[in-house]
Amino acid sequence: MSIMDVRLAVEALDAQLGDPYSSANACSWEQLCRNDEAGERPHEAEAVLKEIGVAKAFVPHEFNGLLLQLDRLGHLLRAVFRRDPALGLGFGVTSLMAAATIWTAGTAEQKERAAELLISGGQIAVAFHELAHGNDFGANEVTAWPSESGFAFAGNKSLINNADRAELIVVHARTSKNPVNHSLFLLDRTKTAFPAGDYWRTVGVRGCRLSNISLEGVTLPDSALIGALDGGNSVALRAFQVTRACLPSMAVGAVDTALRTTAEFAVGRRLYGLSVAEMPYVRQSLVGVFADLVAADIFSSTAARLLHIEPNQGSLYSAAVKFLVPEVLREDINILADILGARFYLRNGKHAIFQKIMRDFPALVIGHAAQDVCEATLRAQLPVAVRMDDKPNEALQRAIFDWNIPLGKFDWATLQMGASGKSALFAALHSGIENRTSVDKELGAIFDELLDLSIWLRSTVVQMSPRERGLNGSALASAATKVYARLLAASACINRSNVCRSAGQDSGSNLIASDAWLKIALCGILGYRRFLHTDLVEQLNAVCYEEVYEELLSRLSLNSTFDSLASNMLPIYNVFSNKIKI
Amino acid sequence: MTEEIISQWIVDTIASYLDVSSSEIDPLQPLANYGIDSVHALSLCGDIEEKFGFYVDPTLAWDYPTPNAIASFIAGRSLSS
User: Fold this and answer.
1) What digits encode the pLDDT tens for the residues B23-77?
2) Window 435-474 of A, Cβ < 8 Å to B
3) ipTM of this predicted complex?
4) Which one of A310, A312, A381 makes the best mutation probe of the B interface by having the most chain B beta carbons within 10 Å?
5) Which of A375, A384, A386, A481 is the best mutation test for B, with the most CBs of B within 10 A?
6) CATH, residue A178
7) What's the sign of the alpha-carbon dihedral A525, A87, A74, A580?
8) What is the C-alpha separation between A126 and A170, in angstroms, rounded?
9) Which CATH architecture has domain B3-80?
């Protein structure tokens, strides 16, 4: 499936979700804000997703689903996140997390049961979280022990999305005193009754229903075990690499809508005799967010492709994406809020979706591995992370960065807990820079900065002791981790830009191929645009900003998405009638 | 490489992590007794890969708790590969 096919699939999905501006439509921003105001699940929008069969995207092909390639999963679900992040989370993403553990280690019977439920529009809850332990699931206290009829349980889980309605629940429970030995179980509600507690009231994602589960006195048969006894943490650490890479890619959709809402406002609003968008600060901010959004798409999609190509480095790539992308996008939403001024907190009117996204988005930043957990995963493995070949394999690089090269179906068995081998993405920073042709002075200066940072990183990591990389490690190790994640993002952007340049395909690719976008995106990745007003930023001349701003205006007027696909959100015809292909 | 040499290498590596002398690490004692945590376990995986050329899961330090047990596992793995 080529990128053009992916774009058509996304447009087909958007056509079925209907006009986001039409208040009568269940999947419109106005209706989804009404659901949010009422603090209720968006039932009508969920019914539309169910009718379309969106959850098929979570189910591997061999179980009658549509899931083959992980990068495409992100692109498709982004359409739902453009409507409403809470809809994306409530309808699907926690089901995907739960299902990922089943696709990784479940029995054929468990996989079939999960596939059937998801395809019929049902949910699977993922019950890891205990309030006392957060992301530190190695410390979880819910316990399971062998009993006459299988396993008996004691303890409670907290803040579990969809616990009130999910027909299946993946439960994480301690099965040994050893800290690495928990197990996963598939609880089938149609066979085992258990109570879900009251809903937790939340500031954001109010369309999701989070509640506690009491597992006191619950017993499950031996057949409920997912994977090996005591192997639950290994399964989770492998399976969640997929969801940690894909969730940020989906989250790009929420920022797409935040940018659209703000840009529409800025273009239409007149102050001091000119439109808000004509003010240099505003224009540069809009362009900066647009450039970041495309970079976030490229980095997360690249990581998802790398899970196919280099699964031995998956624990690094997925942690780097979850570490960097949601945080950068959250900053971008704050920047947009400054432009919207008083309108950013209005709960009705045509910009109301913005405040909803602003409240919902932090759930995507902290949920499913917060910043500190991702940083610790990276920090501990820095020596492996910076291993690279001097001469990267060209065919491998093409497979990573040329999104028209199909990767086939994802093999869940290839993921491993820790990283090993060498990093093609890290090595590709150097080859991507070498392969760039006609590099002007500004781009050359940015490349020099990146190369200097990469040399600094490698020499710093070599001298670092394991203690410095530990949980209460040094500030230097923390800084090295940040640099590493940003260099990976830069590598993805430069190499993807090079591919788009040589192919020269369409509007989305033309932007990515341009020096203007690459310079602005790389300055964003380096943190220069916002924090350090160095010479580099001064050199990013107005021409760069104008070029990218023209593209932003063009996409706004054509109702095209701001991501790398530039798909049409209001397609006038539905190319696949009622069938999504991905 | 004999099991004994591998075990000594593990003792030396762990001692360097903990910044103590190798003589303070007993190859028959569980590493957990010395305060080995998940970060040390990940570091050990990286170092084993560098030294012996194959990947091991970070659960190794729990599945084979002592330097001698890890050495025996690595010797077996080296032979089979």
Assistant:
1) 999 999 998 888 887 778 888 998 999 899 999 998 898 889 899 999 999 999 8
2) 465-467, 469-471, 473
3) 0.85
4) A381
5) A384
6) 2.40.110.10
7) negative
8) 5
9) Orthogonal Bundle (1.10)
